[in-house]
Structure formats: structure tokens, C-alpha cells
């Protein structure tokens, strides 16, 4: 040990030795940072980082060795052979590069130790190849004990470096790995140099000493440039990665269309405000917002217009936000607002600002609309004890506001919980309603508009609850879909309807709606076939109605099932036509037997010019494709006259007959045409 220290103190120039140590320490830190980066990457990117690792580690070891060799003072002229010097550099780059690849491979278990040992061995090989290139004008003697010790030190400290870097997870592991790597290079060099004894034949001149310093500075400078390049690559990548991470975090926490906070960020802010409210004397108002005519804008003017409306509404609501206020978008046409307040007047002022922003005219370029919105307000801590309950109560208040034609701003009331409990009870009871025969069928007549003759009947499901009485389909159908019982319920409807129609003395076509879940079920075709066989109803008398939404869910699968159903001989009608996002594309994708025009276009047919134009276009489309069109929701003679004038084929609605059980319509008698 004393021999090594004596070699450093008396046989090396202090300044050049310091430069070599600095290069080694800085290079080790840069190299191992790059190794960590490579270990986290995959594929070609990983190999790219390993290339930089090889350049950095090889340059670190070689430059340290070269500058330290120049620091060595044998007191005799020295010549470096170029070919062996270049070979030593190549060995340092390739050998350490391979070692670090093994170190980060993760297999086998001792890969970090093995890889580190390979790095140390490569550095030792580089050192002694470099020594072969070191030709001194004197006699050279080697102490083999120090020679072997230097190799052992390089391999040992290299292994420790790999172990610290890849296996240890405590905060100082990286710094220990850097020190171990530095020790591998430094201990190798100085122990190896202690093994060397030079007896000069000629003594070094002053000019040669100056040249040595110039050469050392040049090598050190080039080495630092190489390491600086690797470091710059690392820093640039880290900056890009950080920038991408910030962008991803922004995307994850903001709505992509409007730039407003999304549900995740909004709820986080709401949770923080709740904590502040618990520790202070203010309250929190949560306002659920749902645009009233957004779907209409989408249907009439297209999605671009709908997006423009959302952006304009968002900008208006956020234009004059004050401290303690926040607007977020939860999705679709649903927004939320947050307001911390002490004075009720502050809350009323905020709600008024929102209402004005939501009610003013919006220019969409091709149209000017007044959207309007339904606002549901719940207050913490008055209406809820936690964030989830506050969100739920604001949601309930918002849906109550949507149902109110006159007052579109609704504050939460405890009675709304009763409605929610009623819905939950229905969700539970719907599972047993089939077995307990609580469901029954009504039939609504469909007539030819040309001669008034009956073209068929639509089958409508009804539920007579033993406690709640008649439950509206608009309430229990969504519940059945959410609970998953809609498939069994749909099969019951189909079987009961076919059995009823097969018993009629006069053959009449029946139209049965197929839910999206039924259409996605692989056994639907077999179910229809079996029911037709069981009931004896001819396939030509069964018409299955499907909505655009049911098809769009999984278009390829849905169309395949529809083709198989059509092959059975049943008719396929597209229901609620015109309300979906891709009506024409859906119509083009399958040879439907009938188009059912949605009632929303018929309701204001005699008052809304745009609705009339839309109906005219659909009727013209049906005529050109030779597909009959049935208009739903006909309630007035004026609507009937307009539809007849425009060339509609069939109609259905209260004007022609209300839904009723078959027995009430006389369908079990031959005189049903007159009774209906």
C-alpha cells in the first residue's frame, strides 16, 4: 500500500493527476446516469443509450489512463505507439459497453455483478494494452504482485459498482456506484503503475516536459468534450421526457376540447376545498350543468357545430371567474361548477353569471342558437357530508331541473333521495318481475297513409308493479339495461308477442324492438328461430326494430347478426332514424326493410321549418332507396296531412290509436280492423 501511495506522491505530476481524477469522477457520474437511463428503456432506444454508455465509459477510462500516464514521471523520454494506443481505446469502448449491457440485462440473477466484473476486466485490458504502447528510453521491471492486484481491484470495484447501481434502492446507491466505478479505474492505474520500475537511459529535457503538459491538456479537453456530448444527450432527453410528462399530465387532467379541468382534476380541487371548509367558516356550492339542446345542435348542424358550441360556452363561463370558483367539463354536454362562499348573495350572483353565459345566443357560423342549460345545486356541508355524496346530490338536482320545463335551476332537496331509493328498489324488483308476471304487452297500430289500412302493430312493453303501479318504460327500460336483465326481458317480450300474434284470426305483422345488449348476444339468431318454431308465427310476420346506436356499438358484429336474422325471413327496421351520429352510413351498410322516422322530427313538424325540411329529405331518401318510411308520434291531423303531402308510406301515433292490450283492440276477433 505504501508503495502505491509513494508512486502517486513522488512519480506523478500533481496537476495532471488531479486532472485525471477529475475526468474519472465526472465521467463515472455521467456514465452511470446513462446506464440508469438505458436500463429503463426498451428495444432500439435501449441500444441507442447503450451506445452512448459505451462511448462515455470507454472515454472516461481511456482519458483517465492517458492523462495519468502523462502525469507519470519516469525521468526518461517516452514514445506512444499509435496503433496500440488506438487499440486500447477501442477495447475500453467495446469492452465496457458489453459489460454494461450484461449488467442491465436482468438475467441471470447476478448479471450486475458479472457485468461489473466485465467492465473492470475491460478497463484492466485497456490499461495494459496502453502500457504496451508506452515506450520509454530505459529499462523496465514489473512487480507481478502489484500487477495481479491491480486487475483484482478493477474487477472487484467494477462488480461493486454494478451491484450498487442495479440492486440497491436506497438514496445513496448511485453515489456509491460512482465512487466504486471511479475506484475501479483509479486503483487499477496507480496499483499498475506501482508495479512498474523504470531505469532511465536518457533524461527528459525541459521542452519535452512542456509538450507533455500540452498533450495532457488536449487529451483531457477532448475527453471532457466527449463526456459533455453524452451528458448533453442525457439532459436533452430528460428535458424532453419531462416536457412530455407535463403534457401527459395536462392531458390527463384537462378536457381535450375545451381545455377545462376534467372530472379528475375537478374532484381533486373539490376535495381540497372541502378540507378548507372544514377548517374555516365558508361553504361550498357544487353546480351540475347539462346543456338542454346540445343533441339537437349535433343532429341538425353536425359535430363541428356541437364542438364549437361547447368551446364557446366554456369560454363564456370561465371569462369572469373569481377566486374560489372553478368550471370543469365531465364529458359530453355535462359540466360542473364550484363556488366557495359565505354569503348567499355571492352564490346567487355566481349562478346568475353562469345562467347568462349558458342562455345567450351563440353564433355557430351556419346558425345562431340559444342553448340553455339545466343547473342542479348542492351545498356542503348542508346537503352532504362527503365529496361523493355532494356530487351525487348535485347530479340528482340537475336531472330534476331537466324535467322542469319552467325552472331550469334546481337546488337539492332531501326528497330527491327518496326518488333515488325508489329507482334502486325498481332495479332490485325488475329481476323478479318476469317470474311474477308483472309485465304485459300493449300494441299500437301502424297504418298505411295512402288508404288507412292496417300495416301492422308495434309491441310495447309495460310493467304493473304491485306497489308502485304502472312504471313508465322511460324509467324501467334504462334500469333493465343497467342491471343486465334486458336480455332476459327482451326474450320474454319476443316470445310473448309472437305467441299472441300467432293466435290472431287475421295475420298481422308485429314489430318488436331489439335492445343493444340483445343485438350483441351471439345466441340471438337461435333464440328468434326457436321462438318462431315454438309459437308457429310465420317469419314474414315478425319485424325486428334496431336503433342506430345498437349497430354502432360493434358495427361488424351487429351487421353479421342482422344478416343472419334477415336470412330467417324476418324483416329488419331501423328505429329512431335521424337521431344517431351516422344515420346515412348506417343505412348504407345494410338493406333495411323499413325506416322509422324518430318522433322528435314529427312533434313540431307543423311549426319548425327545419324539421319539415329534414323529414322531406328522409322521405326522399327512402323513395330513392325503395325503403318504406314510417313516421312515429303522429298526434294531429295537420302532421298527418303534411306527411301525406310529402309522400310518407306509413304512420303511427295517438291520432291513429293509443297502445292497448290485444284484447282491448279486438285483435283476437275477425273484426279487429274496425275495432282498431
TrEMBL record:
Transmembrane segments: 14-35, 47-72, 84-103, 110-134, 146-166, 178-201, 213-236
All residue ranges annotated as the GGDEF domain in the record: 282-414
Origin: domain of life: Bacteria
Gene Ontology cellular component terms for the protein in this record: membrane
Domain EAL: start-end pairs: 423-673
Keyword Protein biosynthesis among UniProt keywords: no
Domain spans labelled MHYT: 12-199
Listed InterPro entries: Biofilm_reg_signaling, EAL_dom, EAL_sf, GGDEF_dom, MHYT_dom, Nucleotide_cyclase, Rev_trsase/Diguanyl_cyclase
SUPFAM superfamilies: EAL domain-like, Nucleotide cyclase
Pfam families, alphabetized: EAL, GGDEF, MHYT
Keywords: Membrane, Transmembrane, Transmembrane helix
Keyword Transmembrane helix: yes
Protein name: EAL domain-containing protein
Amino acid at each position: 500500500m505504501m508503495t502505491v501511495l509513494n508512486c502517486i506522491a513522488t512519480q506523478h505530476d500533481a496537476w495532471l493527476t488531479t486532472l485525471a481524477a477529475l475526468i474519472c469522477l465526472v465521467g463515472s457520474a455521467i456514465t452511470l446516469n446513462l446506464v440508469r437511463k438505458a436500463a429503463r428503456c426498451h428495444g432500439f432506444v435501449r441500444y441507442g443509450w447503450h451506445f452512448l454508455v459505451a462511448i462515455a465509459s470507454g472515454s472516461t477510462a481511456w482519458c483517465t489512463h492517458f492523462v495519468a500516464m502523462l502525469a507519470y514521471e519516469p525521468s526518461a523520454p517516452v514514445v506512444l505507439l499509435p496503433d496500440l494506443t488506438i487499440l486500447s481505446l477501442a477495447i475500453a469502448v467495446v469492452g465496457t459497453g458489453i459489460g454494461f449491457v450484461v449488467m442491465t440485462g436482468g438475467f441471470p440473477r447476478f448479471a450486475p455483478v458479472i457485468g461489473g466484473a466485465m467492465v473492470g476486466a475491460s478497463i484492466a485490458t485497456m490499461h495494459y494494452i496502453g502500457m504496451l504502447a508506452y515506450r520509454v528510453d530505459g529499462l523496465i521491471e514489473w512487480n507481478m504482485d502489484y500487477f495481479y492486484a491491480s486487475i483484482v481491484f478493477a474487477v472487484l470495484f467494477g462488480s461493486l459498482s454494478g451491484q450498487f447501481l442495479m440492486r440497491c434502492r436506497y438514496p445513496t446507491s448511485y453515489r456509491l456506484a460512482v465512487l466504486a466505478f471511479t475506484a475501479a479505474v483509479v486503483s487499477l492505474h496507480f496499483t499498475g503503475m506501482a508495479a512498474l520500475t523504470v531505469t532511465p537511459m536518457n533524461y527528459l529535457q525541459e521542452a519535452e516536459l512542456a509538450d507533455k503538459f500540452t498533450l495532457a491538456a488536449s487529451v483531457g479537453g477532448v475527453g471532457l468534450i466527449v463526456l459533455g456530448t453524452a451528458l448533453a444527450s442525457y439532459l436533452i432527453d430528460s428535458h424532453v421526457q419531462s416536457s412530455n410528462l407535463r403534457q401527459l399530465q395536462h392531458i390527463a387532467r384537462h378536457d381535450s376540447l375545451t381545455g377545462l379541468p376534467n372530472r379528475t382534476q375537478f374532484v381533486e380541487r373539490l376535495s381540497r376545498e372541502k378540507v378548507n371548509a372544514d377548517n374555516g367558516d365558508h361553504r361550498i356550492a357544487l353546480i351540475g350543468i347539462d346543456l338542454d339542446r346540445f343533441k339537437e345542435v349535433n343532429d341538425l348542424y353536425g359535430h363541428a357545430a356541437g364542438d364549437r358550441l361547447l368551446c364557446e360556452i366554456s369560454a363564456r363561463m370561465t371569462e369572469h371567474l373569481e377566486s374560489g370558483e372553478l368550471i370543469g367539463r365531465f364529458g359530453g354536454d355535462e359540466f360542473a361548477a364550484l363556488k366557495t362562499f359565505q354569503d348567499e348573495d355571492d352564490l346567487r350572483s355566481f349562478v346568475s353569471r353562469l345562467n347568462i353565459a349558458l342562455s345567450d345566443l351563440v353564433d355557430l357560423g351556419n346558425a345562431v342558437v340559444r342553448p340553455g342549460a339545466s343547473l342542479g345545486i348542492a351545498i356542503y356541508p348542508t346537503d352532504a357530508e362527503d365529496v361523493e355524496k355532494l356530487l351525487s346530490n348535485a347530479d340528482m338536482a340537475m336531472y330534476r331541473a331537466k324535467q322542469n320545463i319552467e325552472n331550469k335551476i334546481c337546488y337539492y332537496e332531501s326528497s330527491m333521495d327518496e326518488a333515488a331509493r325508489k329507482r334502486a328498489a325498481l332495479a332490485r324488483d325488475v329481476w323478479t318481475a318476469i317470474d311474477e308476471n308483472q309485465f304485459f304487452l300493449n300494441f299500437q297500430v301502424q297504418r298505411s297513409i295512402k288508404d288507412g289500412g292496417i300495416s301492422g302493430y308495434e309491441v310495447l312493453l309495460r310493467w304493473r308493479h304491485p306497489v308502485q303501479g304502472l312504471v313508465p318504460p322511460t324509467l324501467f327500460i334504462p334500469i333493465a339495461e343497467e342491471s343486465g336483465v334486458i336480455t332476459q326481458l327482451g326474450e320474454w317480450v319476443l316470445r310473448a308477442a309472437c305467441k299472441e300474434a300467432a293466435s290472431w284470426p287475421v295475420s298481422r305483422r308485429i314489430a318488436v324492438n331489439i335492445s343493444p345488449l340483445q343485438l350483441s348476444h351471439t345466441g340471438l339468431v337461435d333464440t328468434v328461430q326457436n321462438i318462431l318454431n315454438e309459437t308457429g308465427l310465420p317469419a314474414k310476420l315478425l319485424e325486428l326494430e334496431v336503433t342506430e346506436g345498437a349497430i354502432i356499438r360493434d358495427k361488424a358484429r351487429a351487421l353479421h347478426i342482422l344478416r343472419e336474422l334477415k336470412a330467417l325471413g324476418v324483416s329488419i327496421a331501423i328505429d329512431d332514424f335521424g337521431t344517431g351520429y351516422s344515420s346515412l352510413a348506417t343505412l348504407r351498410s345494410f338493406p333495411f326493410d323499413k325506416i322509422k322516422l324518430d318522433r322528435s322530427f314529427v312533434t313540431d313538424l307543423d311549426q319548425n321549418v327545419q324539421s319539415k325540411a329534414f323529414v322531406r329529405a328522409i322521405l326522399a331518401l327512402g323513395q330513392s332507396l325503395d325503403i318504406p318510411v314510417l313516421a312515429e308520434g303522429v298526434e294531429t291531423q295537420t302532421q298527418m296531412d303534411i306527411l301525406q303531402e310529402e309522400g310518407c308510406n306509413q304512420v303511427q301515433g295517438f291520432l291513429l290509436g293509443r297502445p292497448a292490450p290485444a284484447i282491448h283492440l279486438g285483435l283476437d276477433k275477425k273484426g279487429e280492423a274496425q275495432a282498431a
